[in-house]
Design a protein that fits this description.
TF_FadR/GntR_C; Four Helix Bundle (Hemerythrin (Met), subunit A); 12 helices; about 70% helix; elongated; Arc Repressor Mutant, subunit A; HTH gntR-type domain-containing protein; WH_DNA-bd_sf; 2 domains; GntR_C
């Protein structure tokens, strides 16, 4: 059987990996400056073009920001789900996948996250979740606040699962499935229904019931899908397109 040869990684990518390893080794935090260009050229023994390609790649991934001018240079940042959302969007676009794909993924994943969150969420996280539910209730006449709290609620449950992968994945999916971008509208009556669903999920989590939390979240997302299918089928059927948000 013939052995498949793997394509060697570009030098710039290997250097980028070394830079990240050194950031971790030194314990650098967001806001810390990395060594100047001359020192990095000596450390990694590459040309200026290769080093700058490595740094640019890390900037695009949200690991660094590159400050221009005297006293500038690479500064450590904390990456978020932006790059993951972009990668998912591009993958889905080349599959000609509709927005329904993302909604169905959430419906499959988030009930499991709620089950874990019931067991792992801290009291502080529960208090923050309660504040999101309360703020949504107090601002049902404001769709902007509603959309902000809707995202915040689902982010908090995902983070509360204690699984970092779920936290970043839901953040990325919500960036792709931005309701205002795909044309799903929420009249005030619908916002009230969403608030009640969030309250049910919160109450189940506060009771530390994995089964009730999973059921409440599944019911909430199923209700959303049925609403969108009934009122905005063309939005769910629209293909995911990078830059549509």
């Amino acid at each position: 059987m013939a052995q498949v040869s793997l394509r060697p990684q570009k030098t710039a990518m290997l250097v980028a990996q070394r830079i990240v390893a050194d950031i971790n080794r030194r314990g650098n935090r967001a806001g810390d400056r990395l060594p100047p260009e001359k020192a990095m050229l000596d450390t990694y023994e590459v040309g200026r073009g290769t080093l700058r390609e490595s740094l640019r790649f890390l900037e695009l991934q949200g690991v660094l920001s590159l400050k221009p001018g005297p006293g500038g240079g690479p500064v450590v940042q904390r990456p978020d789900a932006t790059s993951l959302a972009t990668a998912l969007t591009l993958l889905l676009q080349f599959e000609n996948a509709p927005f329904r794909t993302v909604a169905e993924a959430r419906a499959g994943l988030e009930p499991m996250m709620a089950r874990l969150a019931a067991q792992r969420m801290s009291d502080e996280q529960l208090a923050e979740l309660k504040s999101s539910v309360d703020r949504m209730r107090e601002n049902l006449d404001d769709q902007g606040v509603f959309l902000t709290e809707n995202r915040r609620f689902h982010d908090l449950v995902a983070r509360g699962s204690g699984n970092a992968m779920f936290g970043y994945l839901v953040d990325a999916l919500l960036r792709v499935l931005d309701s205002s971008a795909i044309g799903v509208d929420y009249p005030e009556a619908r916002r009230g229904a969403v608030h009640k669903a969030h309250l049910r999920v919160y109450q189940a989590l506060a009771e530390r019931s994995p089964e009730a939390s999973e059921t409440a979240m599944a019911g909430h997302l199923d209700e959303y899908l049925r609403y969108a299918e009934r009122k905005f089928p063309e939005a769910l059927a629209a293909p995911v397109v990078w830059g549509s948000a």
